[in-house]
C-alpha cells in the first residue's frame, strides 16, 4: 500500500522508531521514497533499524536519545534538519508500559510512563516546530485505546495517552494557521508487538481480545502504517486534530473488551 503514496524528497522523523509499530511506519515511509530519521534509547537497536531501513535505498539517520530529555530531542531535530533539510513528517510513538494496579505502582512508576508518553510527545512536537516545512508539515501522535477506554491495570497509560490526544487537538489549533496538521492514530491490538506481548501474555488473554474485536482478528503493523501514510499524504490535506482508531472496531466494545482480555489477567 505504501506504493500508492509517494513521499520522494520528503523528510520523516520517527521518535521511538527502532522497533514495532513505529519501525513499521518508518519502513513504509522509506519504501514510499522518503528520507527517514529515527530516535530511540538503545544504540544497538537504533543501529539495527537503520541498517534494515537503508535496505530500501533511501538516506537514513539514526539518533540515540531519550524523549524525556528536551535538549537531547532538540539536538536530534537540529541534526536531522542539517542533514536532510525541512522536516515534512513527524511521528511521535515512543512509549512505555507495564501491567500493574494503581496501588501496585509507585509515584515514580506512574511518572515514568507519563514522562515517556506525554512529556516525551510534547518534547518531540515542541522541538520539531522550528524545523518543520511550513506550510505542509504533518505530525502524527501514536495514541492508544487507553486514551478513551478506561482499562484496569493501566492508570498510567490511560492518563498519559488521554493527554497525548488532547495535545494533538490543542497543537492542531495553535499550528493550523502555519499550515501544520496534527493528528493522532490509535492502534488497536496489533500482533507481533512488544505492547501486545505485555498486555496479552497468555493464549487465553489473546483469545479473549480477539473474540471481542468486531473484525475478530488482531491488526498488523502494516495496517497502522498504511493509515499514517494516508493521513500524511495530500489526500488528507484538510484533516487536522482528529483521533483516528485503526483497531478493527475494538474501541466500540468499550471497557468490556479490555477488562476481559488486555489486562494480562
Ligand atoms: N509494576 C510496577 N512498577 C513498575 C513495573 C511494574 N511491572 N515496571 C517498572 N515499574 C516502576 C519501577 O519500579 C520504577 O519505580 P520505582 O523507582 O519507584 O521503583 C519505575 O517504574 C521506573 O522503572 P525503570 O525500570 O527505572 O524505568 P525505565 O525508564 O528504565 O523503563 C519502562 C521504563 C518501565 C516503561 C520499561 O518497561 C520500558 O522501557 N519500556 C519500553 C518498551 C515498552 O514498554 N513497550 C511497549 C510500548 S506500549
Ligand atoms: P515497542 O516496540 O516497544 O516500541 C517502542 C519504541 O519506543 C522503541 O523504539 C523504544 O526503543 C522507544 N522508546 C521507549 N522509551 C523511549 C524513550 N524514553 N525515549 C526514546 N525512545 C523510547 O512498542 P509497540 O508495541 O510497537 O508500540 C508502539 C506505539 O504504539 C506506542 O506508542 C504504543 O503506545 C502504541 N500502541 C501499541 C499497540 C500495540 O498493539 N502494540 C496498541 C496501541 C497503541 P528503546 O527502548 O530503545 O528506547
What is the CATH superfamily label? NAD(P)-binding Rossmann-like Domain
Q: Into how many domains do the coordinates divide?
A: 1
Question: Helix/strand/pairing class, anyone?
Answer: alpha/beta
Gross CATH architecture: 3-Layer(aba) Sandwich
Please trace the helix and strand order, writing H or E for each element: EHEHEHEHEHEHHHEH
What small ligands are held by the chains?
coenzyme A, NADP nicotinamide-adenine-dinucleotide phosphate
Describe this structure in words.
There is one protein chain. With 265 residues, the chain is an alpha/beta fold. The protein has one domain (2-262): NAD(P)-binding Rossmann-like Domain (Rossmann fold). It has nine helices and seven strands. The longest helix has 22 residues, at 107-128. The protein is globular and about 45 Å long. The protein starts with 10 loop residues before the first strand and ends in a 5-residue tail after the last helix. The relative contact order is 0.14. The structure holds coenzyme A (COA) and NADP nicotinamide-adenine-dinucleotide phosphate. NADP nicotinamide-adenine-dinucleotide phosphate binds at residues 16, 18-22, 40-42, 45, 66-68, 93-96, 116, 120, 142, 144, 187, 189-190, 193-196. Coenzyme A is lined by residues 95-98, 100, 104-106, 108-109, 112-113, 194-195, 198.
Amino acid at each position: 500500500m505504501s506504493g500508492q503514496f509517494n513521499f520522494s524528497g520528503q523528510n520523516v522523523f520517527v521518535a521511538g522508531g527502532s522497533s514495532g509499530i513505529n519501525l513499521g511506519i518508518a519502513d513504509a515511509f522509506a519504501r514510499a521514497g522518503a528520507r527517514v530519521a529515527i530516535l530511540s534509547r538503545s544504540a544497538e537497536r537504533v543501529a539495527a533499524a537503520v541498517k534494515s531501513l537503508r535496505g530500501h535505498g533511501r538516506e537514513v539517520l539514526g539518533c540515540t536519545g531519550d524523549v524525556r530529555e528536551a535538549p537531547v530531542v532538540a539536538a536530534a531535530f537540529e541534526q536531522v534538519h542539517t542533514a536532510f533539510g525541512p522536516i515534512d513528517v513527524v511521528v511521535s510513538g515512543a512509549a512505555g508500559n507495564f501491567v500493574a494496579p494503581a496501588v501496585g505502582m509507585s509515584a515514580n512508576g506512574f511518572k515514568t510512563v507519563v514522562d515517556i508518553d506525554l512529556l516525551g510527545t510534547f518534547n518531540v512536537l515542541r522541538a520539531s516546530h522550528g524545523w518543520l516545512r511550513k506550510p505542509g508539515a504533518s505530525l502524527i501522535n501514536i495514541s492508544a485505546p487507553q486514551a478513551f477506554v478506561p482499562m484496569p491495570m493501566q492508570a498510567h497509560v490511560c492518563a498519559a495517552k488521554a493527554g497525548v490526544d488532547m495535545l494533538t487537538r490543542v497543537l492542531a489549533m495553535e499550528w493550523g494557521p502555519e499550515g501544520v496538521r496534527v493528528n493522532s492514530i490509535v492502534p488497536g491490538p496489533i500482533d507481533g508487538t512488544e505492547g501486545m506481548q505485555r498486555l496479552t501474555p497468555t493464549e487465553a488473554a489473546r483469545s479473549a481480545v480477539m473474540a471481542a474485536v468486531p473484525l475478530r482478528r488482531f491488526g498488523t503493523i502494516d495496517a497502522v502504517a498504511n493509515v499514517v501514510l494516508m493521513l500524511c499524504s495530500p489526500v488528507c490535506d484538510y484533516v487536522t486534530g482528529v483521533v483516528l482508531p485503526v483497531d478493527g472496531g475494538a474501541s466500540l466494545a468499550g471497557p468490556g473488551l479490555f477488562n476481559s482480555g488486555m489486562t494480562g489477567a
